[in-house]
Every structure is written in C-alpha cells, then in structure tokens.
Amino acid sequence: NFKPEKKVWIGGIPEAVTYKELHEHFKVVGAKWVEVWQGTGAGTGVACFATAEEAAAAISSLNGSEIGGGSIVVDVWEKKPKAA
Length: 84
Description:
The chain is of the alpha+beta class.
C-alpha cells in the first residue's frame, strides 16, 4: 500500500494504452506499480513509487510526455474525501 505522497495521478491516457505500456513509460523514473482505470475513470491512472522524491521526479520529467499518440498529464495525487 502506497502513501499519497508516493503516488502520482495520470490523466489524458489514450484509450488504447494498457497498464503494461504505461508501466514501461514510467519504469524509467522508478515506478513500482502502475494502473490504468476503465469505465468512469477512463483515461486516468496512477503510478506508485518507493519514495516521495521519485514521485516528484516523475511529475517533473513525464508531465506532458507522449504515449500512444497522446500527451499525458502527470500531477500530484490528491485523495478526495469520500461522500457521506
């Protein structure tokens, strides 16, 4: 289980991109775990890292990078409060 500061949010993921392709893209910055969401969260995902520093480095180096013909957004992970 990864703490929020060790996660990054990924947006703008092209529909055809699989978690395996995304992991290859994020492995270069040390990603330990990557997930691409389907359904309601389609086009978004998460990458998890061993340290908060690796997560910050991923944001600075991969935000705006291209994968599967599209440009992705990589940003800080914010945990949304659950609706009551």
